[in-house]
């Protein structure tokens, strides 16, 4: 039990950092979106590369495995980070965190048609509650009234969908025998390279040279890449190995709370009644959507390990 308390504390720390990371990404929204994604993912890749050398289990990755890793890099990092960086410029960090908080629920929902998992009444109720919360977020305005809030929320929502699809690709790669931590590291490296190629194509040097290069800005970039994306991924994977994917995923419910609080303190964003109701609906929906009976969890230990890729650093994470 004492060991589990340590793991709980670690996961709470990871969630707090991921919640703060949404605020950091919002702060960095003056950067060209693809460029900031390339820089952050490069920092994270440099943090994660040593993991390959520490990996005790050496696995030969076949052609299909590499194709799946590239697919994971595209969906869970390149598309996700590009959509997120563009979307967050037109919405709040609070709204962003609530939309990203649907990740485990949407993963559970898409696993029904794509992976053949069962759609239970509990899961369906969770989906309805979760998307009810998202509807409130998307229709909310800064004054607390309800009305269409714009494309920023839509882009963030699609970034979350992209990340979930990437997670499902990671599941497929894991079923081919590739450890999820290796998938995470290699996809991070591939994504960083792809993002730099895209940035070099779409941004002229005049745009890059005019970017704010104050020390504090680079401190935020390093903190985001090192702690949130790099070390956060390692901490989350450790939690999954110790507690299992289902129990670990419950901690994701805390990310919207952390982001809303950090956004209010650091960015001066106002907390509205809509945010409170949305948090309750989304947290309840995620809990119902991913919670499994104990007997079912015990029978899916191997499956839980395979699903861990869909809950690793993500997101903005």
From TrEMBL:
It comes from the Bacteria. The chain crosses the membrane at residues 7-28, 34-54, 66-84, 96-115, 124-142, 154-174, 181-203, 215-236, 248-267, 273-290. Keywords: Cell membrane, Membrane, Transmembrane, Transmembrane helix. It is found in: Cell membrane. InterPro entries: AA-Vitamin_Transporters (IPR050638), EamA_dom (IPR000620), EmrE-like (IPR037185). GO terms for cellular component: plasma membrane. Residues 9-138, 151-288 form the EamA domain. It is a multi-pass membrane protein. Belongs to the EamA transporter family. This is DMT family transporter. It comes from Brevibacillus fluminis. The lineage of its organism: Bacteria, Bacillati, Bacillota, Bacilli, Bacillales.
């Amino acid at each position: 039990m004492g060991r589990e308390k340590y793991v709980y504390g670690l996961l709470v720390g990871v969630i707090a950092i991921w919640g703060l990371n949404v605020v950091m990404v919002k702060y960095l929204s003056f950067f060209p979106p693809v460029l900031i994604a390339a820089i952050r993912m490069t920092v994270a890749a440099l943090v994660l590369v040593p993991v390959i050398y520490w990996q005790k289990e050496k696995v030969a990755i076949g052609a299909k495995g590499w194709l799946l890793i590239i697919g994971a890099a595209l969906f869970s990092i390149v598309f996700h980070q590009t959509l997120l960086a563009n979307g967050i410029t037109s919405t709040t960090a609070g709204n962003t965190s609530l939309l990203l908080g649907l990740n485990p629920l949407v993963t559970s929902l898409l696993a029904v048609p794509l992976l053949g998992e069962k759609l239970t009444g509990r899961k369906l109720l969770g989906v309805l509650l979760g998307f009810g919360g998202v509807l409130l977020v998307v229709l909310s305005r800064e004054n607390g009234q309800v009305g269409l809030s714009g494309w920023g929320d839509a882009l963030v929502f699609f970034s979350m969908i992209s990340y979930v699809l990437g997670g499902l690709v990671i599941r497929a790669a894991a079923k081919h025998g590739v450890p999820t931590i290796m998938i995470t590291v290699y996809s991070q490296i591939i994504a960083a390279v792809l993002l730099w190629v895209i940035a070099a194509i779409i941004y002229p040097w005049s745009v890059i040279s005019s970017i704010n290069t104050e020390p504090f800005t680079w401190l935020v970039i390093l903190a985001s890449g090192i702690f949130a994306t790099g070390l956060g991924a390692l901490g989350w994977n450790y939690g999954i190995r110790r507690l299992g994917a289902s129990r670990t995923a419950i901690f994701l419910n805390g990310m919207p709370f952390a982001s809303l609080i950090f956004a209010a303190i650091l960015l001066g964003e106002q907390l509205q009644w809509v945010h409170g109701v949305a948090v309750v609906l989304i947290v309840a929906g995620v809990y119902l959507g991913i919670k499994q009976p104990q007997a079912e969890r015990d029978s899916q230990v191997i499956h839980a390990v395979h699903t861990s890729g869909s809950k690793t650093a993500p997101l903005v994470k």
